[in-house]
Design brief:
single chain, alpha/beta, 4 strands, about 65% helix, about 5% strand
Amino acid sequence: MNYKFFFNHTALLFSFLTDISGQGSSLYFHNRKNNFLKKIDILTNQQKNLLKIFSKIYIKYYPDLSYIFYFENSGENLQKELKKLLTAQEFQQINQILANLKPVFEEIYKKERLKLVERKKKLEYISKEKKYKKILLNLFNLENKENIKENSYKVFLSLNNKSLDDCAGWYWGDNNISLEISDCPIKNLKYIFGGILLHEISHDLFKKSPIYTDFKKFCDNLKSNKSLNKIITKYELTKIDLIEEMIITSITPEGYFYRKYFGKLPTKTDVIEFEHLRKKVGMALAPTLQNYIKNNKTIDKNYFEIVVSAITS
């Protein structure tokens, strides 16, 4: 597995607009919008109205619009892809919004760019380590698939602003991932790589794995379970999404794999309730995962059953 870490001005401007408009990751990190607004001058009424238009276009075309800005952004190609996606009026509006809000973004960009350059170099250094890759591929029964071993992931580095508690990773398909890390402490970049980036990549590897078909059958055949249904309802997830998330998190970051290759998890000050469930599952599966890694075993139905048991215990 290889990684290309990158960022650029236009994509970061778009990311910034998603947050100050109240969309994007501000939907998950509720202080992010206000934190960014505190860093800029007061918005004019025109700019506020433009952000309302931006929000409508963003919601209408999510996630395609974000994907274009983050991963198809190369000058003329950006305009070409936007024309394909948007109506003529929306195309004009997006470009007007970018031009009008760009000056607002400039001071933030000057500071965030320097941080991202530093974090990019650190991630490139961490990613050179090879020892964990074979283990991860083996867990998903992909060690002998050369096309998977040579996978190259494009990783867009983006903005955040509440230190570690505001960091996030998102998988966009086609081996494209975004990491929101500009304010993440340098000392925590091992966690960003091993706990956030490799978590997203593990989701991708799992879906590409021959064992994923068995996993879907396992979920389909799972008998009705009141405790499991209660958790599914509580977190507004499907059964397959909840169990998959817990399988992946039992590997990294809350699992034995992360601890073995990347050390202790950093301390977060703002732990959401769902993370307590992830930690419980990770701790419960640690002896099992240690055995699987030691004996070069691929995760299987037995592993799925232990994960479900840990979720509902």
